[in-house]
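sry for the spam today, last one i promise. struct tokens for design, 497 residues
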């Protein structure tokens, strides 16, 4: 394993794969030749070192793109981080559509063992979901799921409650978002049966929510209003017994991977994210799309600074304008709350080696691979077009992962350099950016992309990740599922009454 990596020939920094001690000499490629650079100070793993002098105001180049400007004169061999580099990004920008030629490849089909639903959708799980309309009945929903799991049988895997704090005392977009997300989850094909649990007096009551659910299978979706029952828990368990009877009739059968929808999410990023895990997910995305499948990329604030890469890969000009709106609408959301648009890297990101939002975004957007953008979704929309889709949602892990599930993702691929135990309403596969994390938190991590800077090739690991996704879609549990973790969160933007 080498100790550093120069990602692009045009870069004026290298990334330390292992800690580079002060005084250590490294040899880096420059143009047609090479040069020796001496580390002026210790360079932590995942962090950047200058391989030439960079004047104050000069561009710091990583991934072949500017990730910021030097705050001061930076000498060759210096550690480059938040103390001496700053974002070069502005506020709202004007964009021009400059389409990037993309070769759309087709590869042979592969099947997974999934569940065909009567409405033509497919699921990778056959669970019973308890969806509260309002936070007031969260504990009731949890109690119902706990009792009902004693009656699971056949192909039904688990009864799961998804508590959340909303559904009442909301206004405007917040109320609309809650209703859309809840309706999306009710209609999600990973649920073989759903109990919608209402209180009775909430804004987003069952009668209102039905307008968002649309047509539904009365055998699959049941409703209960707690205020109308003497013992809402006992009555709900009886309803779920019937849902289990219905759902247990479904069995896994071979289904084309062209039916799979996979969400892509980056959390707990470090300096290796854009080198290992995120490019790997991008290659996976390209492979799945080549077989007719669908991927969804979200975290709009983590596109800032790399958005033109996605804009120029839009399949047509209409999608380009939708992507421009996706970016600028989110920037206006920041501005409307008098917040800085470009202060996105978290303390964990910075500790792991990410210095600016451009640094983070250029790494994060590599999850999109090289495919054309075929769809742009607003928050709460569901995917309609096969191929790469962009989804409006924040960078927050729980909110963004829930949005991916609500948009139709069967599985979420979650890259991480720091590690996290959380899950989402669908299987949430944790992909480590580095082997240290994978070894330390084997109870959290499902796949180690860190081997890409050790002894494995991108081709090998792309196939390995693809195979694991197929296995997961066929019923193999990811770590968070085995631990019994199931989280959901809804985007809040406005006033709570």
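last one done:
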């Amino acid at each position: 394993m080498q100790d550093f990596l120069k990602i692009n020939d045009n870069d004026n920094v290298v990334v330390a794969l292992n800690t580079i001690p002060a005084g250590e000499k490294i040899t880096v490629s420059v143009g047609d030749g090479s040069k020796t650079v001496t580390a002026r100070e210790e360079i932590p793993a995942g962090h950047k070192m200058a391989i030439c002098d960079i004047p104050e105001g000069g561009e710091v180049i990583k991934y072949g793109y500017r990730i910021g400007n030097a705050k001061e004169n930076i000498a060759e061999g210096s550690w480059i981080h938040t103390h001496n580099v700053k974002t070069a990004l502005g506020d709202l920008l004007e964009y021009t559509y400059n389409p990037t030629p993309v070769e759309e490849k087709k590869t042979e089909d592969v099947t997974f063992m999934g569940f065909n639903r009567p409405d033509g959708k497919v699921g990778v799980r056959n669970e019973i979901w308890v969806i509260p309309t309002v936070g007031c009945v969260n504990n009731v929903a949890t109690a119902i799921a706990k009792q009902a799991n004693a009656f699971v049988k056949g192909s039904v895997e688990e009864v799961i409650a998804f508590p959340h704090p909303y559904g009442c005392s909301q206004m405007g977009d917040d109320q609309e978002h809650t209703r859309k997300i809840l309706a999306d989850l009710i209609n999600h094909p990973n649920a073989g049966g759903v109990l919608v649990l209402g209180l009775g007096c909430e804004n987003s009551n069952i009668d209102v929510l039905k307008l968002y659910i649309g047509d539904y299978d009365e055998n699959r979706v049941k409703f209960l209003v707690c205020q109308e029952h003497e013992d809402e828990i006992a009555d709900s368990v009886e309803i779920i017994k019937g849902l289990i009877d219905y759902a247990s009739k479904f069995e896994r059968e071979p289904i084309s991977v062209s039916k799979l929808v996979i969400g892509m999410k980056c959390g707990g990023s470090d300096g290796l994210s854009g080198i290992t895990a995120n490019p790997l997910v991008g290659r996976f995305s390209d492979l799945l799309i080549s077989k007719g499948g669908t991927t969804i990329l979200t975290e709009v604030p983590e596109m800032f600074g790399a958005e033109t890469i996605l804009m120029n890969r839009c399949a047509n000009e209409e999608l380009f304008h939708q992507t421009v709106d996706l970016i600028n609408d989110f920037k206006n959301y920041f501005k409307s709350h008098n917040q800085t648009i470009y202060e996105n890297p978290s303390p964990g990101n910075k500790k792991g080696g990410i210095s600016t939002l451009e640094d983070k975004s250029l790494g994060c957007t590599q999850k999109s691979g090289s495919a054309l953008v075929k769809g742009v979704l607003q928050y709460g929309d569901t995917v309609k077009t096969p191929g790469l889709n962009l989804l409006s949602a924040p960078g927050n892990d729980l909110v963004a992962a829930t949005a991916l599930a609500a948009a139709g993702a069967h599985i979420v691929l979650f890259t991480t350099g720091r590690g996290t135990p959380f899950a989402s309403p669908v299987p949430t596969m944790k992909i480590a950016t580095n082997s240290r994390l994978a070894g330390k938190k084997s109870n959290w991590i499902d796949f180690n992309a860190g081997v890409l800077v050790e002894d494995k090739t991108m081709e090998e690991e792309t196939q390995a990740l693809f195979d694991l996704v197929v296995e997961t879609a066929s019923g193999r549990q990811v770590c968070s599922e085995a631990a019994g973790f199931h989280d959901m969160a809804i985007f809040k933007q406005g006033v709570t009454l």
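Residues 317-336 form the longest helix (20 residues). ok im logging off now
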